[in-house]
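Structure first, sequence second, as always.
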């Protein structure tokens, strides 16, 4: 029987925020794919509209059913995600030097995006069962490290270091929130500090080049440093109020690389200036604060940690992408949530929003 309290507790604020940033993203995407381009590129915009329609349907599905069902089926969701990531390595579509997409008839799915939600759900269930006031010991951390390492390794093999890094950061955020025993935290910090120099030897050639370019973009201005230099020019030329909709020269003349995905924030900054950029950043900050507020109000450990995980996913992706296009971080191929083109990304983000709404709607059950 339908509980009327669900409708009374529906999170209209989060819905408005999501639709606002999604609407802004569609406006910027339209400019990114049409300014100075052939009409054929409008197909990308139409596809994004379809993906948003599918995403809204997924969001509705995710908040209709009690989020405790996701806790019950956490293992199945995680194993299905691992299966999809494994299938990509054997049957994935090879595009741009990597296998990231699994062809499903006329469509393609990026399992690494869905893996973010799977990791969030399975870690939330694990931490909810063992969380305590004294903090997690090293033995307690073996399971979450393994649960994170498996999808991380499979995604790195594609290769997709950016998405793998986001999953690691989400897991790290959830672990720190669950609280780690001081001695265990000291061991972890010491271990990762010693391992950082060794990571360099496992990076591929182009990944090393990206780090060197981040440290000095002018070392190869027409090669590896070209992308970030053009991005900085676009951002700086927007000044306070921008050049106007469809009037960005860097965008229209196709100087910006991947302008509809990784570097779409540069299009936003060029056409809408500092004011437009700050408006979008403010929306992200409000959504992040809203997600943490949902976590803080929830009295169920699983719901609380689940909300932290979803919020961390949005926060880290936005932080990395904006820092990347401004030259503050290496270019690692992380898209801007709700703004960049990508069907799998939209569906994953809307799934996360649906889970946040789910927790928010059912908070009365634990009051």
């Amino acid at each position: 029987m339908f509980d009327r309290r669900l409708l009374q507790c529906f999170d209209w604020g989060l819905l408005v925020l999501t639709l606002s940033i999604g609407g802004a993203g569609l406006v910027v995407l339209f400019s990114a794919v049409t300014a100075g381009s052939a009409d054929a590129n409008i197909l990308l915009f139409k596809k994004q509209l379809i993906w948003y329609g599918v995403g809204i349907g997924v969001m509705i599905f995710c908040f209709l059913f009690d989020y405790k069902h996701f806790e019950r089926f956490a293992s199945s969701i995680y194993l299905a995600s691992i299966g999809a990531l494994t299938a990509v390595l054997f049957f994935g579509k090879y595009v741009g030097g990597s296998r990231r997409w699994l062809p499903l008839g006329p469509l393609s799915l990026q399992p690494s995006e869905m893996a973010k939600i799977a990791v969030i759900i399975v870690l939330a269930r694990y931490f909810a069962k063992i969380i305590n006031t004294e903090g997690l010991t090293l033995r307690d951390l073996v399971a979450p490290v393994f649960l994170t390492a498996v999808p991380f390794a499979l995604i790195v093999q594609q290769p997709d270091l950016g998405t793998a890094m986001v999953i690691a950061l989400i897991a790290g955020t959830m672990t720190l929130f669950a609280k780690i025993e001081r001695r265990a935290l000291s061991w972890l910090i010491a271990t990762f500090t010693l391992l950082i120099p060794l990571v360099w030897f496992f990076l591929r050639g182009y990944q090393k080049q990206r780090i060197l370019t981040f440290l000095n973009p002018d070392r190869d201005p027409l090669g590896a440093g070209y992308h970030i230099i053009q991005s900085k020019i676009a951002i700086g030329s927007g000044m306070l109020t921008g050049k106007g909709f469809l009037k960005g020269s860097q965008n229209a003349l196709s100087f910006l690389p991947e302008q509809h995905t990784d570097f779409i924030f540069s299009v936003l900054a060029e056409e809408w200036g500092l004011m437009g950029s700050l408006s979008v950043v403010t929306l992200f900050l409000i959504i992040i604060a809203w997600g943490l507020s949902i976590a803080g109000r929830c009295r169920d450990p699983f719901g609380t940690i689940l909300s932290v995980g979803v919020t961390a996913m949005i926060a880290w992706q936005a932080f990395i992408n904006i820092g990347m296009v401004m030259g503050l971080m290496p270019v690692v191929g992380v898209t801007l949530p709700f703004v960049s083109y990508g069907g799998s990304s939209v569906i994953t983000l809307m799934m996360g929003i649906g889970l946040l709404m789910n927790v928010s709607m059912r908070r009365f059950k634990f009051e």
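Margin note: The two ends are 20 Å apart (CA to CA).
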